[in-house]
Amino acid sequence: MRKIRTLAASGVAAAMITFGVVAATPASAATCTTWHDDATFGVSCSSAGSATYVYATAKCTNGKTVTGAAARIGSGQWSYAYCSSVGAGLSNEYGYSTF
Hints:
The protein is mostly beta strands. The protein has no helices and 9 strands. β5 (53-60) and β6 (65-67) form a beta hairpin. It starts with a strand and ends with a strand.
């Protein structure tokens, strides 16, 4: 298991990012922590400009895309995208969106 701290800036509200661990946020910096293992990608954000929620998205090894439930930014909640829910592992394409 590995934790990665990501700090990203600029973008469009609710933009979907599916390549690498990158965040698109509304015109200001996002402070988010991400995590993944062989079948799951997760994200939690302490701030993200004017955004209220974040959700994880992952492409799975079987080609399907999964999305986690929305997590409130600043609450300590995590959004997890589970490839195991579609019988697959996590590919190298995952990310998160804020809205």
